[in-house]
Amino acid sequence: xxxxxxxxxxxxxxxxxxxxxxxxxxxxxxxxxxxxxxxxxxxxxxxxxxxxxxxxxxxxxxxxxxxxxxxxxxxxxxxxxxxxxxxxxxxxxxxxxxxxxxxxxxxxxxxxxxxxxxxxxxxxxxxxxxxxxxxxxxxxxxxxxxxxxxxxxxxxxxxxxxxxxxxxxxxxxxxxxxxxxxxxxxxxxxxxxxxxxxxxxxxxxxxxxxxxxxxxxxxxxxxxxxxxxxxxxxxxxxxxxxxxxxxxxxxxxxxxxxxxxxxxxxxxxxxxxxxxxxxxxxxxxxxxxxxxxxxxxxxxxxxxxxxxxxxxxxxxxxxxxxxxxxxxxxxxxxxxxxxxxxxxxxxxxxxxxxxxxxxxxxxxxxxxxxxxxxxxxxxxxxxxxxxxxxxxxxxxxxxxxxxxxxxxxxxxxxxxxxxxxxxxxxxxxxxxxxxxxxxxxxxxxxxxxxxxxxxxxxxxxxxx
Length: 464
Fold this sequence. Notes:
This protein has helices spanning 49-52, 57-60, 74-83, 89-95, 119-125, 137-150, 217-229, 281-293, 306-316, 321-324, 379-390, 432-441, 449-458; strands at 30-34, 66-70, 101-104, 114-117, 130-134, 161-170, 175-179, 184-189, 193-199, 243-247, 252-255, 260-267, 269-278, 334-335, 345-346, 350-353, 368-370, 374-378, 402-409, 421-428, 461-463. It is of the alpha+beta class. Helix 4 runs antiparallel to helix 5 (119-125). The radius of gyration is 25 Å and the shape is globular.
């Protein structure tokens, strides 16, 4: 069923290009417009992007720029206030489906920037702390389906995406530092005000970049996935912003995935955010390819033979099986059963010294190239980014005479896009192994025989 048509208010110049006036201020990254008064009788469920944003939003702004709409109807804000029990935070926390409420610590601790507490504790702390939780079901149900329908997203297949609603209580002088998300976000400032700083980033990112989180475990995976979008990606916040805006009560903001943003609470208040998460074209292509391959009895067989796998891949000619298949170093990826954190992945890695003699049999004759599905980082690079950003020390082993590298190959298919195969490589400082691995990081394959064998076995090198 197509989305129902809504009556758009005429803009200040008499046109009907959405609900904004005809002379908004613009920048390459942030567009700004002002919303004229909205019909007082408009049902709250009709509060959707097409009412608030220009008619060319989908073609000209969505996924490329941010858009700030000033002056949403006060009657609509009043309706939201009624659903949220006059913005009573205790009711909000108890009605939230979140298992616990996230509290932002006002000063950085050595171990964490946030803690999770029960609703009763959150209510007491909210007078001095900023908080985050999932939005109450009544409000979530109101917005989630209407936003997707209005934007004409996933109409052909609702399994391709979904939306979530979050509630943020911002308490001065809280700052959520530079980061970017992987979702499309629509924020409504219900009370108080916030300053938003923006910096251009990469488009269509598959994973967020969150250097503001005080957790070294996020660095490695986010670097690996950031390099999918940009080979020169570095895990660090911008040094300056491109453009800023202030959201006051009743203002509406859209910002796409990959845009770095920093949010400062100017005056204490509440905002809600509708985030849209969807499958990528690569996701649905691979899903379809998987379905097609499963029509063949051979592809449906459990993995037991490298030769059979490579034979099947050769017939398809889309992706080389050698890029995926790693002979050595594989460890099981296990999902945590933690109730506090969703999709926590526990990784175990083996350590190999590329200066040691390789005792197995690996063919390294002919031309080799770096596996397009692999990435090589130094251990100090990962902890160094975290230390630089957080200002916190990280417990590390003494360097000694060896240098450590982390080799990630392919993807495990989980929500965190972890590598299928992760291994630690050691080599003597200043030796042939280090020279060889530094060449690999620059895309060059040296002639060091033991290094070529180890990397071919672990999946870092493939036949050219």
